[in-house]
TrEMBL record:
Protein name (Swiss-Prot/TrEMBL): Solute carrier family 22 member 3
Residues passing through the membrane, by range: 23-46, 154-174, 181-201, 207-228, 240-261, 267-286, 350-372, 378-399, 406-425, 431-454, 466-486, 492-515
Any one of the GO CC terms: nuclear outer membrane
Record-linked InterPro entries: MFS_dom (IPR020846), MFS_sugar_transport-like (IPR005828), MFS_trans_sf (IPR036259), Orgcat_transp/SVOP (IPR004749), Sugar_transporter_CS (IPR005829)
Domain Major facilitator superfamily (MFS) profile: 75-520
Gene Ontology biological process: dopamine transport; histamine transport; monoatomic ion transport; norepinephrine transport; serotonin transport
Family to which the UniProt record says this protein belongs: Belongs to the major facilitator (TC 2.A.1) superfamily. Organic cation transporter (TC 2.A.1.19) family.
Highest classification ranks of the organism: Eukaryota, Metazoa, Chordata, Craniata, Vertebrata
Length: 570
């Protein structure tokens, strides 16, 4: 007897009805706090202008009524940095300020350039003064500057380590124990360790808690993405995928506003974490994925959830829903070897992993490059968020008309070309150079958003979450590599990072052309559907033909519509 697939049942239950829209709206909320976790370091770890604190100088400043900047100008030594004289951030004069004869009325004459040049200097001994009125970052609280500035880099590095381990571990748990379960466990971890980060008594505990925080954040986001993708029909996958990611950009727009009004990094951390605690209530509002349940041979529960979806969508299901099965599933347990055992799965894994890696490096690299130009950090964040919205709309406009593969490859190639062109534009054409770099940012944003849902469409159900998680770990590695690639190469030649970014993006675009087109193709259920796509198409055609015959059989016959009459006697 014929066994219906979940796609068959969705034809009746509703491919994107009220139930899926409600679940989708709830899960989109998950993307917004992730922006705060991922880029919140810009505000939480902000490093303001700073210089050595000197108790002797502090006494003179208080007695003379000088402000901080006047004090720095008079008492902080100048050092040569890249050919420019700037006030030292890590050294101070080793002087007894009470013996210098410094007066309040004419201090610069009292401490002449000749005296300054001969004065001995030493590293900061009593901490630092910060030009950061009314605000506090963990940098200013723990004095993470000069010799300890590396801790700020570790703050982001430990997060990416957590992303790396968590995306694999939670991806495995999602395929083994369910999308909903792993999503809820992730948010529980996020809530616990996010609050612990805010309560950290020192920078060591802060880094440890930050790593555990990253462990849950990304894995939970991916689990939510896979869940909503598996609940909707084929033609709606691209929309939910792009909009789900677009809410990350919404988070980027909201973050500077929140950070402007919340001036303490600890309270900002609490506000960023609070939504994850609220997401635990989703236990009562979102279902498990029926596709995953079928892959685990739990048809009874899959039927219950599908019936609930149909009821909320105000649809009526045929009695044959009890025949919904996943008879072709080869195994109920996913493993990494499933991703590389067969030729096409191996090819998909390599190409997708490289695209995750490239997208992370180029995306973050271009953002950091624009960031070193200076300006208002809040406005810069708004601009960076606004640039991402056209990318989402371009994807939605092209992906159903052209397909996945060509826009995906083109986005990478455009990003690469923009990087090369930007490198060749002279510094005197600043705004033109910035505009071309923004085009590159637009292209790589499109590529970054597309790699996520293309990834889900190229793996079968039982290993889909693990496949997305494993491939996306290269994104975390790229995130760790990006700052080193940018700053180390820029020290040799300022435009060299752009050349590397362009080359990576071109290679990524070329590799994408080797992937199959997935527009209008049902989500694969087995590895055979990947290795032998023609069989998958035949199965889909048989399903359509069967539904057509069923509809014909349900139509009343002529005998059914004719009134019953007694035979006439002659």
């Amino acid at each position: 007897m014929y066994s219906y697939t979940f796609d068959d049942i969705l034809e009746e239950a509703g491919k994107f009805g009220r139930s899926q829209k409600r679940i989708f709206a709830l899960l989109c909320m998950v993307s917004m706090p992730w922006a705060g976790v991922y880029v919140g370091i810009v505000f939480q770890g902000f490093t303001p202008e700073h210089w050595c604190r000197d108790s002797g100088v502090s006494q003179i400043r208080q007695s003379c009524g000088w402000n901080l900047m006047d004090t720095r100008k008079i008492t902080v030594p100048l050092v040569n940095t890249s050919g420019v004289l700037v006030h030292s951030q890590c050294e101070q004069y080793n002087l007894d300020w009470n013996a210098t004869g410094l007066t309040c009325d004419n201090p610069e004459s009292d401490l002449s350039d000749a005296h300054r040049s001969k004065a001995p200097m030493t590293s900061c001994k009593e901490g630092w003064e910060y030009d950061y009125k009314g605000r506090q970052s963990f940098v200013t609280e723990f004095d993470l500057v000069c010799a300890d500035a590396w801790v700020v880099d570790m703050y982001q590095a430990t997060l990416n380590v957590g992303f790396f381990i968590g995306s694999i571990a939670i991806g495995y748990l999602a395929d083994r124990f369910g999308r909903k379960t792993s999503f809820l466990v992730s948010n529980l971890l996020n809530g616990i360790f996010g609050i612990l980060v805010a309560w950290s008594p020192n920078w060591v505990s802060m880094l440890v808690f930050r790593a555990f925080y990253g462990f849950g954040v990304k894995g939970g986001w991916v689990a939510g993405y896979v869940l909503i993708t598996e609940l909707v029909g084929v033609e709606y996958r691209r929309t939910v995928g792009v909009v789900y990611q677009m809410f990350f950009s919404v988070g980027i727009l909201i973050l500077p506003l929140i950070s402007y009004f919340i001036t303490d990094w600890r309270w900002l951390q609490v506000v960023i974490t609070a939504p994850y605690i609220l997401f635990l209530s989703y236990y009562w509002f979102i279902p498990e994925s029926p596709r995953w349940l079928l892959s685990q041979h739990n048809a009874k529960k899959a039927v219950e959830i599908t019936e609930a979806i149909a009821k909320e969508n105000k649809k009526t299901l045929s009695k044959n829903i009890e025949m919904m099965r996943d008879d072709n599933a080869e195994t109920s347990t996913a493993s990494f070897m499933d991703l590389i055992r067969t030729p096409k799965m191996r090819k998909h894994t390599f190409i997708l992993s490289f695209n995750w890696f490239t997208s992370a490096i180029v995306y973050q690299g271009l953002i950091m490059r624009l960031g070193i130009l200076g300006g208002n950090v809040y406005i810069d964040f708004l601009i960076s968020g606004l640039v991402e919205f056209p990318a989402a709309f371009l994807i939605l406009f092209t992906i159903d008309r052209i397909g996945r593969r060509l826009p995906f490859a083109t986005a990478n190639i455009v990003a690469g070309a923009a990087c090369f062109i930007t490198a060749m534009i002279p510094e005197s054409m600043f705004w033109f150079k910035t505009a071309v770099a923004c085009i590159g940012r637009l292209g790589i944003t499109m590529a970054f958003e597309m790699v996520v849902f293309v990834n889900t469409e190229l793996y079968p159900t039982f290993v889909r979450n693990l496949g997305v998680s494993v491939c996306s770990t290269l994104c975390d590695i790229g995130g760790i590599v990006a700052p080193f690639l940018l700053y180390r190469l820029a020290a040799i030649w300022l435009e060299m990072p752009l050349i590397i970014f362009g080359a990576l993006a071109f290679v990524a675009g070329a590799l994408v052309l080797l992937l199959p087109e997935t527009r209008g193709v049902p989500l694969p259920d087995t590895i055979d559907d990947i290795e032998f796509p023609e069989k998958c198409k035949e199965k889909a055609l048989r399903s359509i033909e069967l539904r057509r015959k069923q509809m014909i059989n349900l139509l009343p016959t002529a005998a059914d519509v004719m009134p019953n009459k007694e035979p006439e006697t002659v």
